[in-house]
Write a structure and sequence with these properties.
Structural class: alpha+beta
Strand content: 15-25%
Oligomer: single chain
Shape: globular
Distance between the termini: 63 Å
Largest sheet: 7 strands, mixed
Radius of gyration: 33 Å
Helix content: 40-55%
């Protein structure tokens, strides 16, 4: 015999339509947004990972000063790799941007056609899809440089340029002022030899087992290649930001979205608890009558859970439908708005279904069942009297007669409804948490940009690099000669220039994820880094530096705040691809939020890492350095470079 309670379900839904509509909308929108994002993100990540094999992405590339001859190519391929031409030219377009033009590829770093068709004859070009979007270009439009005009026949994605880095040493890509493209062989062959950049991609005959093995192999490869040709650039895949930046970023976005989902689930649990409690208070007489008529507590729990669980289930189903249709396309568009990704195929994501459907329903079941079980412990008589309190009524708190009647009345109302006000307070906290989550980002980026401009170590920061051709040589004499030539080539007469050394280490994995830390070795009495270093004469006998031979360093404020470090702490860092570790004593914190950095005397840094005492890695300067050849400058950090990050974000 069917339970008469079932007849009340639809009456409850109609009677509490507003309440259940709120739950339905909250569930549907939340699940639609998060499900769509997780599905798009998972599909994108899988498409990105599969692209390495599908599009035969290079293991690395190098650029030579001159075109290699067949004998040089054969000697290099005998090292266990296969070489492919990756020549390109760069054209300054009339719209103020730079276009890097390649010959269409069919063996390595293949091209994904997104729209239109590939260029088939001279005067046609296929340009990067994201660059086209950012510069309001489409198929059929024309682009111009000083001496060329091309018709855009297709929008493409180059598999080795998922992030548009024009220089691998740049801190952020620029998809507005830099683009990549392909043309047909006949068009590319029309360029003169002096216009070409002779870049060669390579693939290993046997893939390295892991990133550490790849690092060791690539370092040996660079030295061997440098013996054959003059290298201008050497970039293994694991360091190529144009390839790896996208994959690293997509993983971080997924984590952020799951955290947001957990926040919203907690809010939903809060809403469910309030609605259930409200239902019990409203129907106390009905519950008392049913309990007195012989209905068990379990039957009533199942009855009162049916409506919210049903609404949640319907909201979850519709939310997933939205997520897999409109939601995933919208979220995929967010990625396509930042990265030059190939076409992806939607993949069923079981984890997304679990997080956005099963978990909310379980929360609804658990929260409601616990609350109902607790509330329905009261006797039927108490429900009939609408007395849902578990404690005897206490005496009223005495209030001063000097307060006046209405003041005392208001205070008693507050005290008697303290639990309701506490619930309201918690609800407002959660609501504002979500509100701030969305509204704070533009202000944070604006603040970041101002902080970057005001807190720069110097107006220009030059990181030097020794060309790979100069790094060759096995004997110490050859290495010494190379270093002397390099040191002489990077000397400057700019009076603002100040030398510094630099080294990179990583934090140990643990509570926080491993982060790269830049160590700066700065000169005593530096005019850019205002730190007074202790000398051996002024150090005390109990100084850790003297007793344990641990170098004393200053941490940037960004590093100290992120890892909760303070003066007197000891930190341990390690080589990124090795197990070698270093300990440092924190002597203080330097006010600099631009990066996770460590500052120490230049002589101390050179000694710690077994470098020549007079070696240096770059210059701080408040004016542009113009008397050093650009091939010796690895990267330049200035206001434009730092604020490019916030503009891109």
């Amino acid at each position: 015999m069917r339970s008469p309670l079932n007849k009340r379900l639809f009456r409850e839904l109609r009677g509490e339509f507003g309440k259940y509509l709120v739950i339905f909308i909250l569930m549907t929108l939340t699940i639609g947004m998060v499900s769509g994002f997780l599905v798009a993100d998972g599909s994108m990540i899988q498409a990105y990972e599969e692209s390495f094999e599908k599009y035969s992405i290079e293991n690395g590339h190098f650029r030579t000063e001159k075109k290699m001859n067949n004998a040089q190519i054969q000697d290099i391929e005998d090292l266990g790799i296969k070489l492919y031409e990756k020549y390109y030219v760069e054209e300054a377009l009339t719209n103020g941007s730079t276009m890097r033009i390649f010959k269409n590829r069919d063996e390595v770093n293949k091209v994904c056609l997104m729209k239109g068709k590939m260029p088939e004859k001279p005067g046609e070009i296929g340009i990067d899809r994201m660059y086209a979007d950012n510069n309001d270009l489409s198929v059929g439009d024309e682009i111009e440089s000083g001496g060329h005009t091309w018709k855009i026949t297709g929008l493409v994605a180059l598999s080795d340029y998922s992030a548009l880095f024009s220089n691998n040493n740049d801190s952020m890509f620029d998809s507005v002022k830099f683009g990549v493209s392909v043309v047909c062989p006949e068009e590319f062959d029309s360029y003169k030899a002096d216009q070409l950049n002779y870049s060669y991609a390579w693939k290993y005959n046997t893939e390295p087992k892991n990133e550490k093995a790849e690092k060791d192999i690539s370092e040996d490869l660079m030295e061997d290649v440098a013996k054959e040709v003059t290298l201008e650039e050497f970039v293994p895949r694991y360091t190529n930001q144009a390839i790896i930046f996208t994959g690293d970023d997509m993983g971080g976005d997924r984590s952020m979205m799951i955290v947001l989902l957990y926040i919203i689930i907690v809010i939903m649990a809060f809403v469910f608890a309030i609605t259930t409690n409200n239902t019990i208070r409203k129907e106390a007489n009905v519950i008392g009558t049913l309990r007195a008529s012989g209905y068990t507590r379990g039957e009533l729990i199942r009855h009162y859970m049916a409506a919210p669980v049903f609404v949640t289930f319907i909201g979850a189903i519709i939310g997933n439908i939205i997520g897999y249709t409109v939601g995933k396309d919208y979220c995929a568009g967010l990625y396509y708005g930042s990265y030059s990704l190939p076409t992806y195929v939607t993949i069923w994501n079981a984890e997304a279904f679990l997080l956005t459907t099963v978990v909310p329903i379980l929360i609804m079941l658990v929260v409601n069942s616990v609350l109902l079980w607790y509330k329905l412990k009261l006797s039927p008589l108490k429900f009939l009297r609408r007395d849902l309190s578990r404690r005897k009524q206490k005496h009223a708190l005495p209030l001063s007669e000097h307060l006046g009647f209405f003041h005392r009345f208001r205070i008693r109302v507050i005290l008697q409804n303290m639990s309701n006000y506490a619930v309201l307070f918690v609800g407002i906290i959660f609501a504002n948490m979500l509100l701030m989550f969305g509204l704070m980002l533009p202000s944070v980026l604006d603040h970041y940009q101002v902080e970057m401009e005001n807190g720069m170590l110097s107006k220009y920061q030059y990181m030097l690099q020794m060309p790979a051709s100069m790094a060759g040589g096995d004997s110490k004499l050859e290495q010494m000669v190379s270093m002397m030539m390099f040191s002489q080539a990077v000397e400057t007469e700019n009076p603002d220039a100040e030398k510094f050394s630099a080294y990179s280490l990583s934090t140990l994995p643990g509570k926080y994820k491993s982060e790269e830390i830049i160590l700066y070795g700065v000169e005593n009495n530096s005019k850019y880094i205002n730190i007074k270093w202790k000398t051996s004469d002024s150090a005390s006998d109990t100084d850790v530096k003297n007793v344990e031979n641990i170098p004393e360093v200053y941490l940037s404020s960004g590093y100290a705040e992120k890892f909760s470090l303070k003066k007197g702490d000891t930190i341990t860092l390690k080589e990124k691809y090795e197990n070698k570790k270093y300990k440092f004593k924190v002597a203080g914190v330097y006010d600099y939020v631009g990066s996770l950095s460590i500052f120490m005397p230049i002589q101390e840094l050179n000694k710690t890492f077994d470098m020549d005492k007079d070696s240096f890695s770059g210059y701080f300067s408040d004016s542009e350095i113009t008397d050093i050849d650009e091939k010796y400058i690895g990267s330049t950090i200035d206001v434009e470079d730092l604020t490019k990050i916030s503009r891109q974000l």
